[in-house]
Design a protein that fits this description.
The protein is α/β, with parallel strands linked by helices. The chain has 20 helices and 17 strands. The structure holds pyridoxal-5'-phosphate.
Length: about 450
């Protein structure tokens, strides 16, 4: 019986050649239509075998063609789209880390649709350098001797180790063999560079003598990394960066510090946990400092490598630098973001990430109250303002819980998981947190003007 039914199913090619099939191929590509048909045939075959279906559906009907057409349209929906971040996590890696300032977006757009002076000197009419647009600005802002920009911090670390250590040794503390989400694991990065890792100290305590004893004739780099997303607390010890710098320089090895989040301004200014800035690290003696452009800096994805001019030049000349170079769109956005750190601009106001991190609680409270009132007016909704904590996220300030005021939302017919899902699948997805079995919206990370989108989404939920 089922074998007979299976025989009645057409092959993909036969279905494609039918009048409905040809009509669909006129609207969508052969590849797309064939993929949708193949999935349908597989499902029907499975249903017939298992007895879930006892007849072959009318594949060559207008109704069935309409079904396929709807699926073909849905398949073409964009998957990379803007979202409203209501999680309160400012540097949310899964949501694209730092949203750019308007100035950076404009600079990016200006370069995107035009030819540009990317590597062109208008004065001489000759080839110019990609780096000149940004390197002196970075040195001006951080006090670095030299700068190099690559496509992300991971590439910066890999380039620094590859160019400076070669097949020699990299000495690193067991307490700093970090993993940043998304497969950046320090031991693997060192291995990928071709250098040999020499671990010193213990998980919680490493002394200057541990480093000193490990440095030998093959040692090229002394590597430290910032505990971006964890803390070792309790019975701990690590030498000061100044002592490490003196040791490295006495023994003729390079001191590389992977800073990761890389703040240009002191976070404690906004009441956040103090954290060494890029300038601090350089002043304390690091020869090379690496950090991300899209974390605390608040710019586009890129990796910044700052430090001693002779070492930066070595990196620049390495063939891997070409493979990791920054693209023109990110470069334009980076320059525009960095300019926001120059007076009279106040980066705590003009760089979105810093503005959100430094937002006063009473301001967040006012926004939360207005949002709660508007949501409470939507059919089936209840909303109230509640004390809550947010996080910097993105490998920055892991212990810094940000005191905040959030909007706790409940719906008469939907549980927290279903309500969160409805918000996530709105035209522009709204990403919330679930806490205490409630949907929680933190206005800190909701960009200006996006509150109305949240209210519109709530109004559409029945
Ligand atoms: C985030 C981070 C990295 C990786 O930076 P990407 O820009 O994502 O490549 C490396 N090291 C540290 C310490 C970090 O915090």
């Amino acid at each position: 019986m089922s074998v007979d039914l299976l025989r009645q199913l057409p092959g993909v090619d036969t279905w494609l050649a039918s009048s409905h099939g040809l009509a669909l191929v006129a609207e969508y590509s052969h590849v797309e239509v064939a993929a949708v048909m193949r999935a349908h045939l597989a499902r029907i075959r499975e249903d017939l075998r298992s007895g879930r279906q006892t007849a072959v559906p009318p594949l060559e009907s207008d109704e069935y063609a309409a079904l396929l057409r709807a699926e073909l349209l849905a398949r073409r929906a964009d998957t990379l789209v803007g979202v409203v971040n209501a999680t309160g996590i400012v540097i949310h890696t899964n949501l694209g880390r730092a949203p750019l300032a308007d100035e950076a977006v404009a600079a990016l757009a200006a370069v995107a649709g035009h030819y540009s002076t990317l590597e062109y000197d208008t004065e001489s009419g000759r080839r110019g350098s990609r780096g000149k647009h940004v390197e002196s600005l970075l040195c001006e802002l951080t006090g670095a001797e030299a700068a190099l920009v690559v496509n992300n911090c991971a590439a910066g670390v890999l380039l620094a180790l590859t160019a400076l250590a070669g097949s020699g040794e990299v000495v690193v503390s067991r307490g700093e063999l970090i993993e940043i989400g998304g497969s950046f694991r320090m031991p693997d990065v060192i291995a990928a560079s071709g250098a040999r890792m020499v671990e010193v100290g213990t998980t919680n305590r490493t002394s200057l003598a541990d480093y000193a004893n490990a440095i030998g004739a093959d040692t090229r780099v002394l590597l430290t990394s910032h505990p971006s997303n964890y803390r070792v607390v309790g019975f701990t010890a690590r030498p000061s960066p100044q002592d490490l710098a003196s040791l490295a320089h006495e023994r003729g090895v390079a001191f590389v510090h992977d800073l990761g989040s890389g703040a240009l301004v002191d976070p404690s200014f906004a009441g956040l946990d103090p954290e060494p800035t890029v300038s601090d690290c350089l002043r304390q003696g690091a020869d090379i400092v690496t950090f991300s452009g899209d974390k605390m800096l608040g710019g586009p994805q890129c990796g910044l490598v700052l430090g001693r001019v002779d070492l930066v030049e070595k990196l620049r000349r390495h063939s891997f630098a070409r493979a990791a170079r920054i693209d023109k769109l990110s470069l334009a956005a980076l320059v525009a973001t960095l300019k926001l750190y120059r007076p009279p601009s106040d980066p705590w106001q003009s760089v979105p990430v810093l503005r959100m991190l430094g937002a006063p609680v009473d301001e967040i409270g006012r926004r939360a109250a207005a949002l709660a009132a508007a949501i409470a007016r939507c059919d089936g909704f209840e909303a109230r303002v509640t004390e809550d904590v947010g996080y910097a996220g993105g490998g920055a300030l892991p212990m810094s819980a940000l005191q905040t005021l959030s909007v706790e939302v409940t719906h008469a017919r939907l549980g927290a998981a279903d309500l969160a899902r409805s918000l996530r699948t709105f035209t522009r997805p709204i990403v919330a947190r679930i806490a205490r079995d409630r949907v929680v919206l933190d206005p800190r990370t909701v960009l200006p003007g996006q509150e109305s989108e949240i209210v519109e989404a709530c109004r559409s939920i029945r």
